[in-house]
Amino acid sequence: MNTLDARGLSCPEPVVMIRKAMQSKENAYRIVVDNTTATENISRFVKNQGYNVVVTQENGDYVLDITK
Amino acid sequence: MSDKKERITIIIAGLVVGLLGALLVLAGNPANMGFCIACFIRDTAGALKLHSAGVVQYIRPEIIGLVLGAMIMSMVRKEFQPKGGSSPFTRFVLGFAVMVGALMFLGCPLRMVLRLAGGDLNALVALAGFVCGILGGVFFLNKGYSLGRSYKMKTLEGVAFPAVQVGLLILLVGFPTLLAFSAEGPGSLHAAVGIALGAGILAGVLAQISRLCMVGGIRDLILFKDTKLITGFVMIFAACLVGNLVLGKFNLGFAGQPVAHTAHIWNFLGMVLVGLGSVLLGGCPLRQLILAGEGNADSAVTVVGYAVGAACCHNFGLASSGNGPTANGQIAVVIGLVVCVVIGFMNSKKNA
Question: For B271-291, what is each residue's pLDDT tens digit?
């Protein structure tokens, strides 16, 4: 599973990044962001695509585990 | 925040900001200008004598309130994050360009919606341009456009911009004789300091929680079919429309609208520039103020770009007036569009 690093990127780049990655139609993705806005935006996007998301906080960053 | 909660907060934020837009006019602000981030930054630049257009000089407490409201709320919610370093000077230039576009049309995206809610059909032409500009920005985002990462900064870097706002408030209240204030024109029309500041703080708090962004609404709808932010956009329009109808301030038409002109091509192109530049910046002028309040130094630099842009617009006759655009302003808008396109291409990855 690829881990994507979207820390420090402006809105909406983190969502563009996960959208591009998800074109491969895998069952699981992981993306790391550094703010709650990106966390919310990605969560909303992947749920709309029929995925589940679990968010965990790590050293001030947010790790989003996205699964089918 | 759950999806439902997010949806509710954006609806509330939109309704309150729209209603404040109507009520601030009642309290003394210029017509259809309850809030205008571009106009108010321009007025503040004038009060600080960065330009000498006598009719648009006043430190607008709404701007101060928006930044401080966002800072307080982001601290309460543990979202205050000093950061910066994502192409700051490019952001300054984009901020400058966005202001050139906004002062061609005479309003930021927020005032565009408030003007529309006041019946000003010129704002409809501008909205069409705004959408086209956003489409241009989406084109670059799909090409992998990015201004690069920001990084964590020291606390002082994050609090410096809000501290400057406190300084402006102290100047406004304590040392007004140091400043230039309009005796006539839009700059002379304003709500009482306390009301304007309170409205700004309330809007800043709600915009921080909800991530309200005028450019993000249309952008996310096009890019991701995501309707969250556009909901806020629509709610602002709806609440302000109802407010204007109740207060008898709705006046449908193109001609004779307050602080507006009817040069359709230039209203359109001005907002193409605002839409494109704002997507490249990652948010509208309102959102940049909120982010600056949350400690984002890149957004603070963007706001300084707006202020310098506004000052230059008036110093060099680029800004429109009720009489229409100027030749210099038209040239500046075209240059601004070219600059944005160059920035867009230069920051897009090949094969992204």
Answer: 999 999 999 999 999 999 999
Q: Which residues of B touch A7 (CB under 8 A)?
A: 149
Cβ <8 Å between A12 and B142: no
A12 vs B contacts (CB less than 8 Å): 141, 216, 219-220, 223-224, 282
Give the Cα separation of B39 and B12 in Å (integer).
Answer: 25
Q: How many Cβ atoms are within 10 Å of A1's Cβ, its own excluded?
A: 10
Would B132 be classed as within a structural domain? yes
Number of domains observed in the structure of chain B: 1
Rounded-to-integer distance, Cα B91 and Cα B280, Å: 9
pLDDT tens-digit profile of B37-79?
Answer: 999 999 999 999 999 999 999 999 999 999 999 999 999 999 9
| Contact of B123 with B116, CB cutoff 8 Å | yes
Q: Tell me which residue range forms the domain holding B307.
A: 3-346
For residue B229, tell me if it sits in a domain.
yes
The answer on pLDDT for A27 being more than 80 is: yes
Contact A44 B6 (CB under 8 A): yes
Classify the C-alpha dihedral B88-B93-B94-B95 as positive or negative.
positive
Phi, then psi, of B151 in degrees rounded to 5? -130, 160
CA distances from B196 to B29, B60, B168, B200 (A): 9, 8, 14, 6
B335 CB-near residues (< 8 Å, 6+ apart): none
A16/B283 CB distance under 8 A: no
Inside any domain, residue B352: no
Residues of A with Cβ-Cβ distance to B77 under 8 angstroms: 36
Homologous superfamily of the A2-67 domain (CATH): TusA-like domain (3.30.110.40)
Q: Give the global pTM.
A: 0.97
Minimal-distance CA residue of chain A relative to B284: A11
Q: What is the pLDDT of residues B27-47, one digit of tens each?
A: 999 999 999 999 999 999 999
Answer whether residue B196 is part of any domain: yes
Q: Do B224 and A9 touch (CB under 8 A)?
A: no
**CB pair distance less than 8 Å for B224 and A10:** no
